[in-house]
Amino acid sequence: MSMFAVLLPGVAQKPANFFNTKLANGLEVLVVEDKSVPLATVEITTKNGSYTESPEFNGLSHLYEHMFFKANKDYPSQEVYMAKTRELGIIFNGTTSEEKVNYFFTLPKNNWLAGLKFMNSAIRYPLFLPEEMKKENVVVDGEFQRNESNPYFPLYMAMNKALWGDLFSRKNVIGDHTIINTATPEKMQAIKDKYYWPNNSMLIISGDVNHSEVFAKVKEIFSSWKASGFDPFKKWPIPEFKPLTKNDYFVVESKNARVPMFMLGWHGPDTRNDRPATYAADVFSFILSQNSNKFQKELVDKGIALQTQVNYQTLSHVGPIRVIVVPNPGNVAACAQALKEQIAQWDSPDYITDEQLANAKRQLEIQNLQEFDVTSSLSHSLAYNWCTADLDYFYNYVANVKKVTKTDLQNYVRKYIKGKNYCAGLLINPAQKDQLKPETFWKE
Hints:
Number of domains: 2
């Protein structure tokens, strides 16, 4: 029996090995006990990311993530910082996405307390040394350039600009070259002063630890971290993304593109306004990405397309829906037509079978349970869910996925996809333009 099998409908049930508390300063603390391996992960997540970035700050949440692993008050240079990671046996990393930044240390279980103190130094007392920033500006911009070397990156960026318009920076995690290369310690401090507060963060300690001991030490170490005295998202509200007002068709040319690629995008549901639809979106996307589905059979199996993919990203501020199709280079026009015809059928009663629906629910449940096998990975998932929704969303995820019906899938398609304004892009090599005549593909 899975640990979710006893969930009551509509009631959040956290697993028995999860323990949580909240400090007086607002810092949420979650401990996940797992004695299977002698390791512990100390992770902190903050509600920050590209959705907080106006154009002049675009990419700086990610740069801040890099500066987290540099000098701070207690470890005054990166060399001293790195020496401490080696001493404690720490494997460390951080990630930045649209609505979340997280930092984590995985280390031997006997060092968890030292890791907790090390985390306290890094999160509360960064120095943002100018000489370290100059080096890291180049490193982060190098990551950007590596992304740009992907032949399909221009299509992805063009789609984001089409979907989000003048709020593009709020969805552009990678940032802007100029903003990254000219970033200053003052801008890092501005980000810290807005978002890096205990009442906007959650500390997760997972692995071979005892929650009572952890709670006591967290209180001892982190209670002196003063709360902001304000809600950052009330003081600096995230602007609402405007609905698409028309269909937008575009062609992107790249000399690096070996084969064409279609990408279609819609504004999907989010966890603030339509949580039930987020579960339907996950189920629908999973089904349409399986080889047995009609979408795959009509495009890939018939040789019209080489690959198809349907994605939805769970977010609190408009989760995007994306369809990616790599057409057979000899059948690009036919693929465009077939793609439109298939989307028009997505809400048909027989487009998805009962068997496919049941299998999707089961596979999503298995994927969810597999996250519990590695507590360090589980911590990352908990961080993402806390930032984009809340922990109840995570605890009740499988129970809510199991409730999804074919009618729910139809309603999801009708509310967010079929007949709704969307963006459609085609990536081609310039040498293919005259032959393909892509401007004819999307005529209404």
